[in-house]
Design the sequence.
């Protein structure tokens, strides 16, 4: 039977950040940030270079002192707790494995520092290597491993200390694209197998979408939005999130009319379109609309488009062939605004040539419109 304490423990988030702030001279690197990360979940911090991701992670790890705010891990405040006394471990972009040690010695390193005897730490290192799929590699040197295998050694080395939180700072950044794609899936499986809470930093939105239970989209030291990958993709709260998460056509213009949840807008070149309103918008004010390439339908004539949707016309600039991610880049006829449309997998438009006239339409409910001020916040 569970006790009240056990209940409280289940409800306690593994990480609680409250009003955290850090300035470097006049520059607010982390600006009054608050969020919680549930036990056993995969949480990503996604943002462009310089937005404060590493600073935030280093404060959680205890390497940097916050100016203000508090961090609690497993329900315990970390104020005044030294980095080596925190129940966290960190995996960096540069893995910093010890080249003069064997793979097993690398994995056992933290246990040695904790005074665990040699036989016991080698037994535990071998078990951990087994769990990350490197059983039998313990006697190798680290330079005998591939990049992906070294990545797994770095994770094994961190996980052997059984941290409450594993902090990962762009751990796939140094790998080539193919290996990154592979390690993405492997990381997700490892996290599920260990049931350890991961806090993961990346500037790669696809990595964050694939891996995470929740994502904090960070910009200028703050979270613009915190949500599930689906929430960020389908309902971005700000223009920054709409532009940063997933592909999007960005159309700047002026609101002509606001009808409840829909905005009719015109670009400076006179292209009129409609999109779902996000936040307060008044007619006559500057707006920014976003239409996803994959939410847009392409057709050779307007008769082939779904009835009831406004047909737009365009001229093909180029066909961007990229396998399943192929797209066509076109110029809207009226305004000459560039617009990208994802191509269907059928290959139906593989013959499109530059200069060809096409039609396209989208459901205004699936496009989104913000007051333009949001973009410069
Ligand atoms: N020790 C420091 N002294 C002064 N300024 C710093 C220091 N560390 C970071 N900064 C500044 O704080 C801001 C945030 O840096 P941070 O390293 O946290 O960014 P980041 O989001 O991790 O970027 P990247 O994706 O490039 O790693 C940057 O403008 C950076 O120049
Ligand atoms: Mg960084």
Sequence:
């Amino acid at each position: 039977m569970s006790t009240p304490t056990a209940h409280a423990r289940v409800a306690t988030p593994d990480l609680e950040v409250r009003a955290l702030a850090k300035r470097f001279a006049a520059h607010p690197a982390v600006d009054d940030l608050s969020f919680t990360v549930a036990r056993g979940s995969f949480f990503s911090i996604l943002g462009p270079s310089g937005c404060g991701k590493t600073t935030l992670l280093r404060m959680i790890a205890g390497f940097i002192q916050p100016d203000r705010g508090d961090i609690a891990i497993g329900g315990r405040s970390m104020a005044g707790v030294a980095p080596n006394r925190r129940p966290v471990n960190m995996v960096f972009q540069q893995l910093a494995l010890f080249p003069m040690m064997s793979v097993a010695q690398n994995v056992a390193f933290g246990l040695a520092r904790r005074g665990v005897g040699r036989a016991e730490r080698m037994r535990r290192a071998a078990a951990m290597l087994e769990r990350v799929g490197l059983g039998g590699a313990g006697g190798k040197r680290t330079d005998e491993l591939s990049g992906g295998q070294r990545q797994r050694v770095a994770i094994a080395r961190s996980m052997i200390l059984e941290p409450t939180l594993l902090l990962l700072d762009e751990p796939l950044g140094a790998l080539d694209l193919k290996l990154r794609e592979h390690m993405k899936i492997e990381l997700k499986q490892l996290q599920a197998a260990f049931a350890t809470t991961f806090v993961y930093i990346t500037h790669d939105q696809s990595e964050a979408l694939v891996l995470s239970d929740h994502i904090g989209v960070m910009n200028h030291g703050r979270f613009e939005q915190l949500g599930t990958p689906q929430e960020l993709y389908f309902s971005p709260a700000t223009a920054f999130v709409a532009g940063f998460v997933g592909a999007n056509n960005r159309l700047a213009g002026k609101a002509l009319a606001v009808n409840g949840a829909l905005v009719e807008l015109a670009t400076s070149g006179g292209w009129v379109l409609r999109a779902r309103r996000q936040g307060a918008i008044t007619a006559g004010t500057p707006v920014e609309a976003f239409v996803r390439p994959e939410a847009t339908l392409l057709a050779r004539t307007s008769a082939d488009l779904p009835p009831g949707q406004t047909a737009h016309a365009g001229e093909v600039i180029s066909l961007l062939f990229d396998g399943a991610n192929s797209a066509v880049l076109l110029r809207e006829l009226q305004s000459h605004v560039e617009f990208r449309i994802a191509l269907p997998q059928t290959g139906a438009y593989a013959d499109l040539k530059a200069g060809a006239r096409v039609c396209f339409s989208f459901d205004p409910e699936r496009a989104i419109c913000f007051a333009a001020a949001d973009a410069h916040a």
Notes: Residues 1-8 have pLDDT under 50 and may be disordered. The longest strand covers residues 27-37. Residues 24, 27, 29, 47, 49-55, 203 surround adenosine-5'-triphosphate (ligand 1) (CB under 6 Å). The radius of gyration is 25 Å.
